[in-house]
Amino acid sequence: MNIVIERDVPVVMRDGVTLRANVYRPAEGGPFPVIMERTPYGKDAPRPSAAIDAVRAAGQGVAVVVQDVRGQASSEGGSFYMFRDEFADGFDSVEWAAAQPFCNGHVGLYGTSYGANTSWQAAIADPPALGAIAPTQAPIDYVEGWPWLTRDGVLKWGLTLNWTLAAIVESQIRRHSASRELDARMEAFAALLDDPAELFAMTPLLKVGELLQEIIGPAREGGDAPLSFFRRVVERRVPAEWEAGVGHDRSHARVRVPAFITAGWYDVILGHDLEHWARMQRDAATTAAREQTRLLIGPWSHGMFLNVVGDIDFGRRAMGGSLDMGADLGSLQVEWFTRLLVDAPPLELDGARVKLFVQGVNRWRDEDDWPLARARATDWFLQRDGGLAATPPSPDDGDDSFVYDPLDPCPTRGGDLVKPPDFAPGPLDQAPILGRRDVLVYTSAPLERDVEVTGPVSARLFATTSGVSTDFVVKLCEVHEDGCTVNVCDGIVRTADNGIGPWAVDMWATSFVFLRGHRIRVLVSSSDFPRYERNPNTGERPWEATVFEPVLQRVFHDAERASAIVLPVVP
User: Fold this and answer.
1) What is the pTM of this model?
2) Distance between CA 154 and CA 533 in Å, rounded?
3) Which of left, alpha, beta for 40 (phi over 0: left; psi -120 to 50: alpha)?
4) 357 to each of 6, 22, 73, 456, 512, how far by Cα in Å?
5) Catalytic site residues?
6) Among 148-162, 317-331, 348-362, 541-555, whose mean pLDDT is lowest?
7) So what's the pLDDT on residue 45?
8) Can you tell me the mean pLDDT for 157-169?
9) What does the pLDDT average to over 536-549?
10) CB-CB contact of 373 with 380 (8 Å)
């Protein structure tokens, strides 16, 4: 099918600000359903993280609009103010698209990461023409407490800094620098990127934001300073004027359209996507929204839909371009849109409501719901001498201890990361950290049968510290027959005092078959740096800390204080 491409099409918002979009549509026929992506990453930039290819989708018989959000790339609006304007601008953009002569009056929204979040924000604003959304790896509750940039109150330092560098700094330098300043500012920015280790280790954390603001320069055209949000995130603070500007209760009870939610087992947003699903099932404004919402979870990291993730090749079936040797992810989303974005009544959706990639056996599987009702929460207990078993420990099993020194933190090895290329996301061989003095290792006997773990994973940790406050990190791993230890999922908890707990560690979720002959392994430490900020152990707020103290950590595993990892085992 031949298509027409129109570039930099003006879209005027209610306050007179002009946003610009590219339109991809079939050359003949129509009108068509419109699907729209609203992105801060540049509508003209190559973006392999996009699940839907605009040219290909237009060839499938829909019109596609890709728009630069306010304050980014070719759109007007002064400085980029993260999330603030996406409710109103999303509403206005959907209604603009519905009024175009090539549109049949029905509009869908899609996107990845921030672009996925703009879909949710517009759905909450509830424009009449919106019929469905397909958010891929979308944050949730993006304002209150910054949970998409924290985990149990611990700042995802790698994500915060990398997103700042990749998504904001360069575009804002180019947007706000006078021509005579541009080369010098870009040179200073490049120097920072060439030494990420020094940048990540800089203290206090607020100093990094000041350095980045100096490179960008002062705000132009009024509005928010380009990186003032950095201070707010690091300090876990949301100003009153931002709350007033957002202006919505941000409840899924306002969403009246179904969602095609796409997530990844090794994505930094996984827990948020699962919460979107839960809230849609519980709170969505219409029966159709609840019943027609779909959830798909692949073995991917953030914005990457390939078969190789970290050190593991999950096979061709895992590729976003070849789901189970059938339709690719983008085609599945477009097909879902075309069934819903038609004149009333829309076609009834058939098929499974949930599609999971089961790691270990590396196959897709259809399910009716999430979490799986047939999964059974099963305790695997930490044991003396580094053991791990489904039987409770004895009364005299005691405890293990280690010294956590925040000036020599346990380094990041895989997981749900968004950081520079020096830090690969996903499942990685944990050998470089297994021998560290600040890592405790607990390992099961070789499994006598396959053990499937599908659903939410958590840990119950009885532990104490000699410091005022500290962190504990728990990793679930698989040990292959050759001894290679690969991470599956993990979590972190910040203790409010030096009590013994038990501390509940939310490790999000997985779907993983631990194969016969393999072993289950649990690692316990107190840092995962620079993925997470370092706890100074002094009680000082981490973003202001310049003094770091070593502490003695004790992890208990006797009958009275039975530390365990809780696995959802599928019979």
Assistant:
1) 0.94
2) 7
3) alpha
4) 38, 34, 36, 15, 9
5) 113, 267, 302
6) 317-331
7) 85
8) 78
9) 90
10) no
Q: To the nearest whole percent, how much of the chain has pLDDT over 70?
A: 91
User: The tokens of 176 are what?
Assistant: 């706000």
Query: CA 264, CA 307: separation in Å to the nearest integer?
Result: 12
Instruction: Give the type of residue at 469.
Output: S
| Three-state secondary-structure class, residue 11 | strand
* Highest mean pLDDT (candidates 45-59, 178-192, 261-275): 261-275
Least confident of 56-70, 189-203, 307-321, 455-469: 189-203
153-184 b/e with 16+ CB inside 10 Å = b? ebbbbbbbbbbbbebbbbbbbebbbeeeeeee
What per-residue confidence (pLDDT) applies to 221?
A: 46
Distance CA 225, CA 309 (A): 37
7-42 as b/e, with b when 16 or more CB fall inside 10 Å?
A: eeeebebeeebebbbbbbbbeeeeebbbbbbbbbbe
Whether the ω angle into residue 204 lies within 30 degrees of 0, i.e. cis, is: yes
Q: Structure tokens of 471? A: 């962190």
Whether the Cβ atoms of residue 562 and residue 392 lie closer than 8 Å to each other = yes
Q: 3-state DSSP helix/strand/coil percent for the chain, to nearest 5?
A: 25, 30, 45
Q: Which residue has the tokens 């000699």?
A: 466
CA distances, 390 to each of 29, 329, 480, 510 (Å): 63, 38, 19, 19
Strands 354-358, 363-367: pairing kind:
antiparallel
Identify the three-state secondary structure at position 81. coil
pLDDT tens across 497-523, in order? 778 999 999 999 999 999 999 999 999
Beta-bridge partners for 566: 379, 458
Q: Is 353 left (phi over 0), alpha (psi -120 to 50) or beta?
A: alpha
Q: Which of 549, 490, 454, 107 is nearest to 266 (CA)?
A: 490
pLDDT range class, residue 192, cuts 50, 70, 90: confident
348 Ramachandran zone, left/alpha/beta (phi>0; psi -120 to 50): beta
Residue 263 identity? A
- List strand residue ranges (DSSP E) for 210-259, in order: none
- Comparing CA positions, the residue from 460, 477, 463, 432 lying closest to residue 526 is 463
Residue 536 identity: P
For the sheet containing 471-479, what is the strand order?
Answer: 440-443, 519-525, 471-479, 485-494
* Position 4, amino acid: V
Planar angle of CA 515, 521, 524, nearest 5 degrees: 155
Distance from C-alpha of 85 to C-alpha of 107, rounded to nearest angstrom: 20
C-beta neighbour count of 269 within 10 angstroms: 27
